[in-house]
Specification:
With 498 residues, the chain is an alpha/beta fold. Helix 3 packs across helix 4, helix 10 crosses helix 11 and helix 16 runs antiparallel to helix 17. The longest helix has 67 residues.
Length: 498
């Protein structure tokens, strides 16, 4: 080998030694391999949404998903979901629980999930840029402590076509409008013209009828059809009369898009977008989450002759009594740590990651799972500000009582409701008459459904008791046999000894 070649070889060896010296650290250890059981509704979607990204950052933590779909499978159509949910957790023992905000509150009171404030403080984990209204809501349910965090939330806003408002000289929507305000504003737009070319004051993507509009108003105002404490229907009241009268007047004003049986039932993508007046620039307002914005963008990309328009967004619909608050803000997935988890540190690493800045930065590009709780990464979508979605505070909503209502009730109640309200719309019955009948006959249906549910529960308990009794009898027989065998053994031993 030439001197030049020897020098080159020596240089390469020195480089390799230096690299090895820089990359190796005799004092460092490989992270210990850990396993983590995470509760989620679907394994594939979990890894698509959370798991794959987390594993890239934490290759030493192996995740096993325990699917809550099994709860519905094992429970049956008329089972007790709350009991089945608790039984599922007791059986599967997940380290990370995925719960609703109501379930979180229940498990806090039962000591089944771990408080996170000490971990947040220990790791100096910043929650300052998480939507403050969500932190406030979580603390309200946790006696001023944090027991879970949510990466996403769902919310609604009022979207409007600024060009139509300018053209017809109508005052622009404002933050904090209630459904009553929205309806009055929609009524200021003209109603004449062909059904396929005219404009509408309001469109809810694919149309809306009186029952649906009344349901949206009542949900926003926090008014329920049934008092689940007394199990009494509350439809024949002044509050509901106001709601249904407002919805009835709105539909009769003809400013709400309602295609009825002529709505979209399938077809090409062009027909799909054409069926939505707001997307096509023929409706002044709509309400919804960021899905509406994605729909607008996709329509503009897909339709050759699409005419874009200026879009505005304001916060709402709000409560008519609390214009800075909304019942359309909610949490569907709260991640919490089981109080008896042997892998609490790994569970906390997972919760930190999916609620952190890096995760939010990646997910902000798609917005495919609602709005991000971590602010600062979804300020706009396709050039449209999303600030309105973060303006209102959530009003508390508790749907846990609704799970007490048997499914069989709705099978009888919904046709009754639809028939009576249709009679009101057709002017063959007054609203007072219809609501009185709905409440009276609906109460009979509810009482019957509750009675049947109770009878079925007693029957199942009796069958369970019989099974346990049989098992006890069998055990007793086995014990007696065992005693006989023991006696025989003793006799044999005595004989042998003799």
């Amino acid at each position: 080998m030439s001197i030049k070649g020897m020098k080159k070889a020596l240089f390469l060896i020195m480089c390799l030694v230096l690299v090895a010296g820089c990359t190796s650290n005799p004092g460092s250890k490989e992270p210990e391999q850990q396993s983590l059981r995470v509760m989620f509704w679907d394994e594939n979607y979990f890894f698509q949404q959370y798991g794959d990204l987390f594993t890239m950052q934490h290759p030493n933590i192996e995740i096993e998903v325990v699917s809550t779909n099994n709860i519905y499978r094992d429970m049956g159509p008329d089972g007790d979901y709350d009991k089945a949910f608790k039984d599922f957790i007791d059986k599967e023992q997940p380290d990370v629980l995925m719960v609703s905000i109501d379930q979180m509150e229940t498990y806090i009171s039962e000591g089944k999930i771990r408080e996170l404030d000490t971990l947040i403080e220990r790791d100096k984990y910043s929650i300052d840029t998480i939507y403050p209204a969500l932190i406030e809501l979580l603390k309200e349910r946790g006696d001023n402590k944090i027991y879970g965090l949510t990466p996403n939330f769902y919310g609604s806003a009022i979207l409007y076509n600024a060009d139509l408002f300018a053209k017809h000289g109508v005052e622009l929507p404002r933050d904090g409008m209630s459904w009553y305000d929205i309806i009055e504003l929609a009524k200021q737009f003209p109603t004449e013209g062909d059904e396929k070319t005219r404009i509408y004051g309001f469109d809810n993507n694919w149309g809306i009828n009186m029952t649906q509009l009344a349901s949206m108003i009542s949900s926003s105002e926090g008014i329920e059809q049934i008092d689940t404490n007394s199990m009494k229907l509350t439809l024949n009241t002044e509050s509901w009369k106001k709601i249904y009268q407002t919805a009835l007047d709105a539909m009769k004003s003809n400013v709400f898009y309602n295609p009825g049986e002529d709505g979209f039932r399938g077809g090409s993508m062009e027909e799909y977008y054409q069926s939505q007046p707001f997307v096509m620039g023929r409706a002044a307002m709509t309400t919804g989450d960021t899905y509406v914005l994605r729909n607008l963008k996709e329509a503009a990309d897909a339709l050759k002759d699409y005419k874009p328009f200026e879009i505005g967004i304001v916060a709402g619909p709000a409560s008519s009594t609390d214009p800075d608050k909304s019942r359309n803000i909610g949490i569907s997935e709260v991640f919490a740590i089981s109080a008896n988890s042997p892998n609490a540190d790994a569970a906390w690493e997972f919760i930190k990651f999916v609620n952190g800045d890096q995760f939010a930065k990646i997910k902000s590009r798609s917005l495919n799972n609602g709005l991000l709780s971590r602010m600062g990464y979804t300020d706009e979508y396709n050039g449209i500000s999303l600030e309105a979605y973060y303006k209102l505070k959530p009003l508390p909503t508790d749907y846990s009582g609704m799970r007490k209502i048997p499914n069989g009730f709705y099978e009888k109640f919904q046709p009754l409701l639809d028939t009576e309200l249709k009679a009101v719309e057709d002017n063959t019955k007054s609203l007072d008459e219809a609501l009185a009948k709905i409440e009276a006959e609906g109460q009979v249906a509810l009482d019957q459904a509750l009675k049947e549910q109770e009878e079925k529960k007693k029957e199942e308990e009796a069958q369970g008791g019989s099974s346990e009794g049989s098992a006890d009898d069998s055990a007793g027989t086995a014990d007696s046999s065992e005693g006989s065998d023991g006696a025989e053994g003793s006799a044999e031993n005595s004989a042998n000894e003799g």
